[in-house]
Specification:
Layout lengths: L1 H10 L7 H10 L3 H29 L1
Helix pairs in contact: 1-3
Length: 61
């Protein structure tokens, strides 16, 4: 369950069908391309951290 929730949160940061992201970008008048350039380094860092934490959790259980 933890892996699914972590991946879901990670994907929702850049998924164009996620209404909260698209609505916020529309209200803030930020293009999706600009948002992707901003969020991709964060997504990669968060993905690496999630991978390490989930691996650690799998090894300790």
């Amino acid at each position: 369950m933890t892996a699914y929730q972590s991946a879901n949160g990670l994907v929702n940061l850049f998924n164009p069908t996620f209404a909260v992201v698209m609505g916020g970008l529309a209200i803030g008048r930020v293009s999706f391309d600009r948002w992707l350039r901003f969020v991709m380094p964060l997504v990669i860092c968060r993905g690496i951290i999630l991978l390490l934490l989930l691996s650690l959790g799998a090894m300790t259980s």
